[in-house]
């Protein structure tokens, strides 16, 4: 449940974080049944900005997390490390990489990647994911998989793998979406604008919530039908298609061509729109947009872009009528500025289908 943004918001409102911290820091609680579960909940909560700020400000809790990295329990270590990564290390690591990218010469563009592929998956789906990895390696692809390449900090190794891979495979399933570790991987790859290729590894699975938002508008390869050879060939075809579309020379980790935006707004469902508004903390805009799909949101954006003042007054009046609330101008401006990053850049941009069958 805590993977849903609305649940995270409610936990913050109900002041549940101090109780969870007590479950982690007080020795009277069972390490596995209580402490580890509370850690995993707080790890998921770090994706909520308000919750993350509360945790960051608690120095005693942060200090206790560091001590838990020496625990005898693997699950406790993994969750504690994940929280520390999200609260302290991720932003710093991304900033360092961004600075390095600026200084790197395009002359080295032919040797940008240590790996062709990084596979992000839930261990519940490991059998199929290992089969995919072994076939890729047999075909001379350089593949990063945590089974073979974890030597130090899991979060640091994960980030380095994403930074040094041409593609990141997102192996979609219920257990993947429910895992805070998988969310950390997918979110980091998304923020770094990596080339994501979603793989459906569970039959009839439909990604929603944060996972649906991240893979929105992307082609996915369906491995759930159990015709492995055929599905694998479709995957190789998709890799080659992506490579053919990419510029021959480009700076690291700017793989998404401006003419084919991976997260094109017009592909979003109504749920994707709500996820976007929640993720970006546009609470005031939700009553105005909650019934819009991506194409309708795009039309609204164009209207705002063409007549910003008139649309602001119109939306402000509508929100006041619906909920007796005022639409802050700063929220409206930030909404348009953020949405601008997700709209098509050119008129001839073609949307992608959702499935390779």
Task: Provide an overview of this structure.
- This protein has a six-stranded parallel β-sheet with strand order 2-1-3-4-5-6, with helices on both faces.
- The chain has helices spanning 5-13, 17-25, 31-45, 49-56, 59-68, 74-103, 126-138, 146-149, 154-163, 174-178, 180-191, 209-214, 228-245, 270-279, 286-289, 294-306, 308-323, 329-339; strands at residues 115-120, 143-144, 165-172, 195-200, 220-222, 355-356.
- Helices cover 57% and strands 8% of the residues.
- Helix 6 (74-103) runs parallel beside helix 11 (180-191).
- 34% of the residues are buried.
- The chain is α/β, with parallel strands linked by helices.
- It folds into three domains: 5-99; 107-245, 3-Layer(aba) Sandwich (Rossmann fold), CATH 3.40.50.10140; 268-342.
Q: For this structure, what is the CATH class of the largest domain?
A: Alpha Beta
% residues in beta strands: 5-15%
Globular, elongated, flat, extended or rod-shaped: what is the shape?
globular
Strand order of the largest sheet: 2-1-3-4-5-6
Q: And the CATH topology of the largest domain?
A: Rossmann fold
Query: Could you tell me the number of beta strands?
Result: 6
**Helix share bin:** 55-70%
The profile of the biggest β sheet is: 6 strands, parallel
CATH homologous superfamily annotation of the largest domain: Toll/interleukin-1 receptor homology (TIR) domain
Counting helices, strands and paired strands, the structural category is alpha/beta
CATH architecture annotation of the largest domain: 3-Layer(aba) Sandwich
Measured between the Cα atoms of the first and last residue, the distance is 32 Å
SSE string, helix = H, strand = E? HHHHHHEHEHHEHHEHEHHHHHHE
The residue-averaged pLDDT reads 81
Number of separate domains:
3
Low-confidence segments: 105-110, 248-263, 345-354
